[in-house]
Amino acid sequence: MPEPVTSVSFPPAFLWGAATSAYQIEGAVREDGRTPSIWDTFSHTPGKTAGGETGDIAVDHYHRYREDVALMAGLGLNAYRFSISWPRVQPTGRGPAVQVGLDFYRRLVDELLAAGIKPAVTLYHWDLPQELEDAGGWPERDTALRFAEYAQIVGEALGDRVEQWITLNEPWCSAFLGYASGVHAPGRTDPAASLRAAHHLNLAHGLATSALRSVMPARNTIAISLNSSVVRTVSQDPADLAAGRRIDDLANGVFHGPVLHGAYPETLFQATASVTDWSYVQDGDLRAIHQPLDALGLNYYTPTLVSAADPDATGPRADGHGTSDHSPWPAADDVAFHQTPGERTEMGWTIDPTGLHELIMRYSREAPDLALYVTENGAAYDDKPDPDGRVHDPERTAYLHGHLSAVRRAIADGADVRGYYLWSLLDNFEWAYGYEKRFGAVYVDYATLERTPKSSARWYGEAARSGSLPPAEGV
Ligand code: GCO
Question: Which end of the chain is more exposed for a tag (fewer CB within 10 A), N or C?
Answer without folding.
Answer: N
